[in-house]
Each structure stands twice: as structure tokens, then as C-alpha cells.
Amino acid sequence: MGTITIVGLGPGDPRCLTREAWQVLESAAEVWLRTERHPTVTGLPPGLTLHTFDYLYEEAGDSQQVYEAIVGEVLRLGQRPEGIVYAVPGHPLVGESTVQQVLLRAGKSGQSVRIVEGLSFVAPALTALRVDALSGLQICDAIELAARYYPPLNPDLPALVGQLYGRQLAADVKLTLMNQYPDDHEVALVRATGTPEQRVARLPLYELDRRDNAHPTALYVPPLPGVTSFEGLQDTVAHLRAPEGCPWDREQTHESLRAGLLEETYEVVAAIDAGDTPALQEELGDLLLQILLQTQIATEAGEFKMARVIAGIDAKLKHRHPHVWGERQVSGTGEVLQCWEELKREEKGAERSALDGVPAALPALQQANTYSQRAARVGFDWNAVSGVADKVREEITEVEAATTLQEREAELGDLLFAVVNWARWLDADPETALRKASARFARRFRGVERMARQRGLDIAALTIDELEALWQEAKKPGLRQPHVAQKPGF
Prior knowledge:
The protein is an alpha/beta fold.
């Protein structure tokens, strides 16, 4: 069994061939090229017997089939006593999937593989951009990036994207990057990387697919200003907890942060209810800080790290969405929720209740709504909304018939629970509905108070009919209080 010698041909300029690569090629009886369509081929040592796998690109279907066919041929030819010299563009270990497959399969069979290094597209791109790779440069492949919904990049650090060919690929890469970076973030295209025709063009991200990328092209994405990454914020929080950090932050525990966690959660809800997007952005940051603080405390205590938190929720999401990451078919949201409950029971055991896991500290209205939803997912529900409405009327009658405080409390509780179920059937969130109703009441009552003051009236001395007249006036759309966020009236 011979040796498989894999030679890197560099980025495209024959002058970039390494001395070792030249010597190996010059002494070879024959050389097999992954593709002859590479500028360096014209500058190879004279008199070489060249073979190419380009014919496989025409015979095979997709690129994966092409690569598998090339790998099979390289391994077969490598078993000859003379082995094979296999030449690939760039560096053999930068963006060459056939090389990775050859190394894997040759390693299993015990076949010898020699790597002869070549200059990759990275070095000439860095020269053109005047960028230091040790400044945290991230390198990724355009095809892999385009297949993602969110870029696997730290926006605090620069990134170099290789093998960006064609406008369609550029469009897909652009859409992925725009989930992380501003639309007008300035990026740089390095065309014909590593060849005499190399050019650098700077442009806003949104124009990425408006340029011709027919030549081998690399995309440089500069970092965003300031701290914008999850990792960067983790470092900030860890600094706060460090010996040279903040005394208050260093004193915090899981328990001491509990109240703040609840408060920040409610402030997020308040921003959502108010429809205040800037406030929502700020409050989500405050809530994220609480999560990072809790995790940093756990890290310091050796309890768990952020990586395990993220890995746990990611695995849970994928396991509970077999209709997305598996073969299961679903017909709609109802079946999705039913599937979710089935999988939860499998995870926790057959004895698990559908109501397990609902926090005892939830506000009563929200807790009732969650219990109602959980029960409905396993089929414990009315057949039609009319049955729920009848139940509400029945509970009102029972409240009116109650004679003791204990009975009235119990029947009122049943009535409230029935109303929560009615809200669910009407596709309304009872917590949100009640919050909005409370906000309307507060706005209108303040209007009544203000009108009474303006007219020199003592609100406590007014009759119920007089108060009702002011109330109806306060309900009119024209009445507003500048310092209170307004909601649509009844």
C-alpha cells in the first residue's frame, strides 16, 4: 500500500506555491488534480503528467456525490505501490471536504497520508485587508453560513467568510448575517483572493448580493463597536463578581437575586403590555443580566456552567419538536401541544402529572390559566365554548347562593377559574385582559378625580349618581391624562 500525498496548490498565483510543494510536484510521476480549473495549474513544473477529477463533476449529481466519488478514487489509487499525489486548491485543511474524508477513511484502514501545506485564501486576504488574524479572527464557509438561520459568529470579533460564489449564495449569506449585524454594517469583499487580479471592495451589508462574485471571493465582516456578544456580556458579569469587581455584586446569592429576577420579569411584561419597544429592549437586557448573574454564581460554586444551561435547553427544544427535527407529522398547533405533553411525560416518567412543573409562585390568575391549558392538552375540556359560558353562569348562581364567608370564597374561586377557562376558549389571555382592564379603570378614575377637583367638588361627598355621571364623562375618548399611558376604551 502506497502513500497518499495531498499537496496544497495555494490560492491561485503560481508564485505562492511553497518550495516543498514544488519539489513534491516536480519529482512526481503523475499528479491528480481535484480540479484543473485553478490558476496555479498553468504554472506547475513543466513535463508533469496531470490527471483531473473534473469529469466527476459532470457525471455525479450534487456536490456531495462528487466529493464521495473523488475520495473513493483517491483511496483506490493510493493503494498502488507508488501511491498518489493528490493536489487541491489552497491549503489541504482549509475548506477541502475531500481531504477530511480521505483522512478519516485512510485512518480507519491504516493507510499513510502526507499533507504538503499550501497557502490558503486566508493569508492573502489578511494582507489585502491589513488585518491581524490574532485579533480574534473567525473563519467560516459561505455555504455553511448560508444554511443557518443565525450566524455562529461572535460580533465582538472580526470574521472572514470563504468561498463566496455567486449572487444567490451571497443573498443567503446576507440574510443570515442580517439577523446579527445592522443592515448598513460595512463589510469588505476580497475578489480573486491570492491572484494578481485581487481587489478589495467595501460596501454596506445590504448590498452584498448586488455585486458580481464570479471569482473566488472572501467576505470580511468587521466587529461591531462595544460589547454586543453573549460571551462579552458574560465576561462583564464575571468581572463584576471577581475580587476586583463590585462589592454588592460579589455578595449576591441565588436567593438574594430572587426578588430582582421577579421584578425584572414583570417589567418585561409591562413593556410588552405598553407596546413600548425601546423599553422592551432595555428590560430584556435587565432580565438577561439576572440570568447571567445566576449562572455566574453557579459557575463559581461548581454547580453548572452556561454551556450546560444552553446545551440543556437546546436538546430539550429539539427533542420536543420532532415535527421540526424528526419525522413526526403534525396538523396544527393543537397537535404540537399534545405532542409536547407526551414527550414531557416520557422524559419525567409515567407517574408525572400534566400539571407538574407549574410554579407555585405564579400569580393566581396566570397559574389558573396554565393549569387550564395543561388539562385541555390531554383532553380534559369542554366540547364547545357554550359549555364554558354555561359554567360561568352556574358559578355565579352558586356564589349568590353561598351563605358563609368560607362558601363565598370557594364559590368565587370557582367562578374566577371558570372565567379563566372562558378566556382561553375566546383566545384571550386572562392576565393581559385583567391588566388592561385595571389600566382602563385607573385612567378613568383619575379622570373622575381630576374633573371633581377642577369643578371644586368633594369627591367623597358626591352621590353615586353624580359619580356615575363623571365616570361616563371620563370614558369619553377625548379625555386624556398626559402622564398616563392610554389604552383603547370599552
